[in-house]
């Protein structure tokens, strides 16, 4: 009986140790390269992707998984928040770990086995739980400090085009402060500054198309004359991937924008043409829009626009002449009109059938 109890306790101890070291052994196995370089290969490096459950996460993880990179994906919430990311890599290459952005210990655990880190975490408006400073400044600093302490080789921090500490936009201001915090803690970090990103789950073209269900049509703040150069989500993912593996981007800023310049009025016209709706828009002065959407920000439910969205809509995209661009990474940007119909088609009326193929 004594021997049986001893064996049972020893088995439990081994099982506990095995569970505790599952992530460690799985990630460490990535140090040995194997395969021909495709999705079923082992590329040899480990990348932690913070913010992977957001809009850009699936594209970045899929790009990394396409060459067999081991990935650690910190998450909040439950399995429904990250289960779609399981298929972005081969079996055994995607590892999920729970974390909280402002908890330094959980962030440190997420990067302790990684060679490279991508920070996609960001918020464009305040919530009841996190302020813009929490997400864009404090959280960015905590991740950068954890990377420095863990000896991470590369850190790519995703900011935004037009980040400026003197901006009228609180979002752009917080992103600029976040860049400073990251570079202070990790001087070799690469800063990615994308313009407005369009893609399947974006809050850019989909919102513009959704506005057409309102009697007013699309709202053009101050006439929609501010200029932007929106960029495709896959091009941003490629830029992040290339920045991780290119020594030329160390301590550099990479600005990522599309090939064409549009006004918001142009975007409304193009979207309406693609979804085959009348070009119905409404001019809204920015002071009125700020007051109205400032009040809707107080509601418990999220409205389709916020006061911060209104402010950003009135600001032109600005560029740093010293920053790298997509051309420096040998990436050709994708035009908005070329791909937007892929996800905007669902906004067409059922009575408007698609054109016959081959005519």
Explain the overall architecture.
- Helix 4 packs across helix 5.
- The chain is of the alpha/beta class and 359 residues long.
- The strands form four sheets. It has a seven-stranded parallel β-sheet with strand order 3-2-1-4-5-6-11, sandwiched between helices. The protein has a two-stranded parallel sheet with strand order 7-10.
- The chain has 13 helices and 13 strands.
- Strand 4, helix 5 and strand 5 form a beta-alpha-beta unit.
List the main descriptive attributes of the protein structure presented here:
globular, two-stranded parallel ribbon, 14% strand, alpha/beta, 7-stranded parallel beta sheet
Indicate the topology:
Layout: H1 2-20, H2 22-28, E1 46-50, H3 57-65, E2 70-75, E3 94-98, H4 104-111, E4 116-119, H5 132-150, E5 154-158, H6 170-185, E6 190-194, E7 197-198, H7 205-210, E8 218-221, E9 227-228, E10 231-232, H8 233-245, E11 253-256, E12 262-263, H9 264-274, E13 281-284, H10 286-296, H11 307-313, H12 336-339, H13 341-344
Parallel strand pairs: 1-2, 1-4, 2-3, 4-5, 5-6, 6-11, 7-10, 8-13
Antiparallel strand pairs: 9-12
